[in-house]
Design brief:
alpha+beta; 5-stranded antiparallel sheet; 14 helices; about 45% helix
Length: about 500
Amino acid sequence: MNNLRYALRSLRRTPGFTLAAILTLALGIGLATAVFTVADALLLRRLPVRDQDRLIVLWGQAPDRTYNYPFGLDDAREFARHTRSLARVAFFSYYGAGPKPIRDGDQISLLRRSLVSGEFFDVLGARPALGRVVRATDDVSGAAPVLVLSYGAWQRRFGGDPHVLGRQVLTYDDGVAYTIVGVMPQGLDYPRGTDFWAPVVPSTVPKDLYVIGRLAAGRAAADAQDELTAFFRRPAGSRWGRDLRGVVHTLPRLILGDTRPALIVFAAAAGLLLLITCLNVANLLLVRGLARVREIAVRSALGAGRGQVIVQLLTENALLALAGGALGLAVAAGAVRIFVAFAPAGVPRLDEIQVNATVLGGAVAITSIAMLIFALAPAVITSRVELERALRSDPRHSAGRRSRRATEALVAGQLALALLVLSAAGLITRSSTPRRNNAHCSRDCYRRCGRSPVCGPPRPWSRSHSPAPAGGTVSQQPKDSPRRRLTPTRCSTWRS
């Protein structure tokens, strides 16, 4: 307790140094915590499904094109009957989450609907937060129309009302009265952007489908891909021809997309920034410690041991770390809000990026690591005082050679790390600049146009070169010529 009171008095005597150290720490800890918050939502937090890495999504692809070819309903059912690599199989609409005007009483709102088969949620192994999921008995012709809300739509549109089950909503364009039967947990909105799920068979949307399945025991994704390729090349073929090959991706990869490499890079940059911050504060502490050499020498002459001096200095540094960590948490909360508000289109799970108990634990860990980096070495170096020399010499010239070398090393380290961060930032900016090329449409471009396996696919046919609407609504191929070679759609953004 005496050390704590003395530390508070010592920091109050130097308000300029104290404020500079706390603000510097707050910036470094806050940005590192903000990056950890985003990484926790996108990389560390698992999807609310069972054994997510065993879930795969399948479609067809021609050898000379990058477009995704869907299954017809009959083909999807036949593949489900004959597959040996998948333990369970379900389907969902090729058109992704499309906007649908919904009337609830006298209010009309636009929600995004995804059509799924009755086995969809059973394959995922997802349990509803309220009510029940879409069942196989709902996915037959003549069944009463039902829907299951996503957690985000339940909160935004219905205010989290626990009595929402059994309420009927009317689709404004086709007059179908859906009964709300369930609400899914937070973090599940696949296909991306889904506000509610409805059965696919009773709908009037063309039955073009993706297949989603759970790998059987002892089987890998490559087995399912080989099996799907063989299915496409069977004598009956598919409506797109027999030259298609199977394409398989795991569900986490489709949901998270290519965010993992970018997040790893930014996490590394945030870690370097935190290290620079700690070196900067350590340098400030060393300079302050050199100015306190005579004070420390007097305390040592009065009987204070070196261990007591180190404990006292560490107490002061811990107070700085705690203040910087508390302010850094506020910086992190503000940075996360700004990121969510200005995040580019296509960033997954934005509604889950928020400061929570896990983030608080991460902030404590980051603050503790920062304190160990910037506090321990200056305390040890400052406590090494040659008593007689320190008491007789001028305080301004009493710094030892070892202390001066430590200060110079810290400055050199800061410069080197700063140059490294600047170089990495330049490379990231250059590599992320889109390049125009008419060769093919990139996966990111598909996402921006709303036509990927995540949110709605690129169509393999079109009468024009204009992109489809954002919901992924596309025209159906004429039935009288299912295998006719047509012009593929190209998006408005290109890059090689």
